[in-house]
């Protein structure tokens, strides 16, 4: 969602960071361009004006002039101001109330309320081990209640039995009673929407609120609607009173203005981001991390947390142990590729890496697509156990057999084997290093075990790791850019060696685009 804004800001700050000293005119010119970029991103005009005024007043002050790197200092000021605009601290769904805690979902028709209700219920069930009941109060849209029932069935969440002919307030009363009798921790009320805000909708929402007395009223807003989403949030807050916002379709090509304006305009926190159609495509909204992504600093903390949720801990421990011994066969490579698919594939992972935004166009030119991961796993699956353990056995005739079995070409098998050799060499080198470098720390964090199989991930350590990896918005720190390209680069297929070779001819294991 923030790609185009991130690209524009990156270009503006590159000009600033190249200069040894900054004059007031330099800052004013940069702020004009920042203002233009934010307006193009559909950020509310009064929010843009307030943002650029605050940045300018700090950027022309003594703290920048005395700074060793004035350009980087301006970037830091913009980053801090972005975080302030987005809400400073991350706020999660508040469940600090007597059970069953009622959560009321409101929003316009088509914004994704029903899907989001199921996502939140799944999240509370799986991550916090809570017992959740969902109830659809939408008696207007055909099959709305049936849709929620099906989503509940698919995700193992209980739903209130459908009784035809009941009013929304009757259903709300029945849902609360069923939740109390059934010993539920949370009851999610999925209300009706309209194509636009009207008086009957607001009266209905107010009636439901009076009966249910919800602890949380979450507005579900479609980020693709831009400034309309901000006006919608203001209207719902004035009439019903919302406690937080869930932004959906943030994986689309919206321009990010709604997210940047909503907190500033309504004063209500954005609590969650819907990042796709799948049931697990829901993320906490962390202002600092979002600001990092917008400014091209990456988001290593979120990447490690995502990995911690999706990676099999026992498998991670075994992998870390093998890495320490310098062992890395094709079975291990297949495991790595499958894990990468789970945490968002190549594009998802690289999108959170610091500095990768600067080579985005080159990456696109290298034909880096996530379907390639599946093809590579298929190639490995077509080999015998002996071949997977000892790739040197794969001579011409065996490669032809594997190619036929996996529906690929011999050239692709050669590329995969080359990538495996590079990764195996890297594992041996990292195994000899004390602590295993950055990747070792990440693997150590993920393979730590702990209560209930959860990893012992210390947030302070993660933040420290993020700072090590984040550098400034001007790009990766010198030591790390080399480390990433030589070390992590080979370990994560998709980044080349030093100076990223293969951007023309393809990353290791990925063919370049045909001319």
SSE layout and pairings?
Layout: H1 3-17, H2 24-40, H3 45-59, H4 62-65, H5 70-86, E1 101-106, H6 113-128, E2 132-136, H7 144-155, E3 158-159, H8 168-181, E4 186-190, H9 199-212, E5 216-222, H10 227-239, E6 244-248, H11 257-266, E7 270-274, E8 282-284, H12 287-294, H13 300-310, H14 313-325, H15 330-342, H16 345-351, H17 360-365, H18 371-381, H19 385-389, H20 396-406, H21 410-432, H22 437-446, H23 459-470, H24 478-491
Parallel strand pairs: 1-4, 1-5, 2-3, 2-4, 5-6, 6-7
Antiparallel strand pairs: 7-8
Please sum up the structure shown:
With 515 residues, this protein is α/β, with parallel strands linked by helices.
Please state the CA-atom Rg, rounded to the nearest Å. 25 Å
Query: Biggest β-sheet: count, sense, barrel?
Result: 8 strands, mixed
Helical region count? Answer: 24
Q: Numbering strands along the chain, what is their spatial order in the largest sheet?
A: 3-2-4-1-5-6-7-8
Helix-and-strand structural type: alpha/beta
């Amino acid at each position: 969602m923030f790609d185009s804004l991130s690209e524009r800001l990156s270009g503006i700050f590159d000009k600033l960071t190249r200069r040894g000293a900054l004059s007031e005119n330099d800052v004013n010119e940069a702020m004009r361009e920042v203002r233009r970029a934010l307006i193009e991103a559909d950020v509310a005009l009064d929010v843009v004006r307030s943002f650029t005024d605050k940045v300018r007043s700090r950027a022309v002050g003594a703290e920048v002039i005395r700074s060793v790197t004035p350009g980087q200092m301006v970037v830091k000021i913009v980053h801090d101001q972005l975080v302030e605009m987005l809400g400073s601290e991350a706020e999660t769904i508040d469940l600090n109330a007597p059970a069953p805690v009622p959560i009321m979902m409101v929003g316009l028709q088509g914004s994704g309320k029903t899907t989001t209700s199921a996502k939140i219920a799944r999240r509370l069930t799986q991550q916090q081990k809570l017992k959740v009941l969902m109830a659809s109060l939408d008696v207007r849209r055909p099959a709305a209640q049936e849709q929620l029932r099906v989503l509940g069935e698919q995700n193992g969440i209980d739903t209130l039995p459908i009784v035809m002919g009941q009013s929304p307030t009757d259903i709300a009363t029945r849902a609360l009673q069923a939740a109390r009798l059934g010993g539920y921790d949370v009851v999610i009320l999925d209300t009706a929407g309209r194509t636009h805000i009207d008086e009957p909708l607001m009266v209905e929402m107010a009636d439901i609120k009076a009966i249910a007395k919800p602890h949380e009223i979450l507005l579900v807003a479609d980020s693709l609607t831009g400034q309309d989403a901000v006006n919608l949030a203001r209207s719902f807050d004035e009439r019903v009173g919302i406690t937080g916002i869930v932004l959906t379709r943030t994986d689309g090509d919206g321009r990010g203005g709604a997210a940047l304006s909503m907190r500033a305009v309504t004063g209500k926190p954005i609590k969650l981001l819907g990042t796709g159609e799948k049931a697990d495509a829901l993320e906490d909204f962390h202002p600092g991390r979002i600001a990092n992504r917008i400014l091209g600093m990456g988001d290593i903390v979120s990447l490690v947390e995502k990995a911690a949720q999706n990676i099999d801990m026992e498998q991670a421990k075994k992998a870390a142990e093998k890495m320490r011994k310098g062992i890395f066969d094709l079975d291990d490579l297949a495991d790595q590729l499958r894990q990468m698919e789970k945490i968002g594939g190549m594009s998802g992972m690289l999108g959170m890496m610091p500095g990768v935004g600067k080579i985005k166009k080159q990456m696109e030119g290298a034909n880096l697509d996530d379907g390639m991961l599946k093809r590579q796993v298929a190639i490995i699956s077509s080999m015998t156990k002996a071949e997977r353990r000892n790739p040197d056995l794969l001579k011409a005739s065996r490669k032809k057999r594997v190619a036929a079995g996996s529906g690929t070409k011999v050239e692709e098998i050669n590329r995969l084997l080359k990538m495996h050799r590079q990764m195996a060499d890297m594992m041996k080198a990292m195994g000899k290093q004390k602590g295993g470098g950055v990747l070792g720390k990440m693997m150590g964090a993920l393979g730590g075990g702990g209560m209930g199989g959860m990893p012992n991930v210390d947030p302070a350590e993660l933040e420290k790791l993020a700072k090590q990896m984040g550098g400034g918005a001007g790009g990766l720190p010198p030591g790390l850019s080399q480390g990433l390209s030589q070390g992590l680069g080979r370990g994560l297929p998709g980044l080349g060696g030093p100076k990223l070779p293969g951007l023309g001819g393809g990353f290791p294991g990925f063919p370049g685009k045909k001319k």
